[in-house]
């Protein structure tokens, strides 16, 4: 099942989101739990933000990381130096593992990019043993990502297509309060709990903030890359003005909130 996330280059993704995924990985692991000796599946591993944090959190026996994007898989494999970690291409909605194979299945910042996210939850449940844990986290695009909403809102004020895409961005799968909890309960997971995880996204300057979007990374980057030169210049200027907010260019810090949910396989 293809992801709706657009990736051009691993380095661009790192600047856009990978660095923040790494910051979110630790509180997500604390919420999801991981114990010594466990076999853990990382669904939608990207460049390895969660994958490489797991062995640092516990003496796991194995981490299997899968992602649909060959760009991500190649980059994560290139970075891997731990023999306990296996990285391969895979489909979140059709995992190639037997039932009950893992102690935990985790998905960090991926389910909202899976068009049939419920299937992803069902597959994670299928491959986890009874008593094991399924957990996932997604950004709260509507109310918890002011740094990213600032871009979308600025461009939506200028362009009808940007307004349409903003609506899609804000209401991707699993993003509404309680939505993941309902999806987990629909799969008969027990002890289901949903919470919020918070980090901050800190930028050195406007270029640090805007460059990966300008290079075409992510859904907004894809939109910006498709603008004609005049509209592109207007977009660059408008987003810069929003970032600077009447002050000289320089560091800015934005809160970022993710919904997180976990449940136990009966």
From TrEMBL:
One GO BP annotation of this record: methylation
One Pfam short name: Methyltransf_11
GO MF terms, alphabetically ordered: S-adenosylmethionine-dependent methyltransferase activity
Xref: InterPro entries: Methyltransf_11, SAM-dependent_MTases_sf
Domain Methyltransferase type: 41-135
UniProt KW keywords: Methyltransferase, Transferase, Ubiquinone
Official protein name in the record: Ubiquinone/menaquinone biosynthesis C-methylase UbiE
Species of the source: Microvirga lupini
């Amino acid at each position: 099942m293809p992801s709706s996330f657009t990736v051009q280059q691993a380095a661009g993704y790192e600047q856009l989101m990978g660095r923040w995924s790494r910051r979110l990985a630790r509180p997500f692991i604390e919420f999801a739990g991981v114990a010594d000796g466990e076999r853990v599946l990382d669904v939608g591993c990207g460049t390895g933000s969660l994958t490489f944090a797991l062995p640092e959190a516990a003496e796991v026996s194995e981490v299997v990381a899968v992602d649909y994007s060959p760009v991500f898989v190649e980059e994560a494999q290139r970075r891997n130096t731990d023999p306990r970690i296996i990285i391969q291409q895979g489909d979140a909605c059709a995992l190639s593992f037997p039932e009950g194979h893992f102690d935990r299945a985790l998905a960090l910042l991926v389910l909202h990019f899976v068009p049939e996210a419920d299937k992803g939850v069902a597959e994670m449940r299928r491959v986890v043993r009874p008593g094991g844990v399924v957990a996932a986290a997604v950004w709260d695009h509507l109310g918890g990502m002011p740094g990213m909403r600032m871009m979308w809102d600025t461009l939506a004020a200028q362009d009808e297509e940007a307004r349409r895409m903003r609506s899609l961005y804000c209401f991707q799968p699993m993003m509404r309060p309680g939505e993941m909890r309902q999806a987990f309960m629909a799969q008969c997971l027990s002890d289901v709990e949903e919470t919020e995880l918070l980090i901050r996204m800190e930028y050195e300057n406007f270029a640090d903030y805007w460059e990966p979007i300008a290079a075409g990374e992510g859904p907004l980057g894809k939109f910006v890359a498709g603008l004609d030169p005049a509209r592109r210049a207007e977009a660059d200027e408008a987003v810069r003005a929003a970032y600077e907010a009447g002050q000289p260019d320089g560091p800015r810090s934005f809160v970022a909130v993710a919904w997180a949910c976990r449940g136990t396989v009966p």
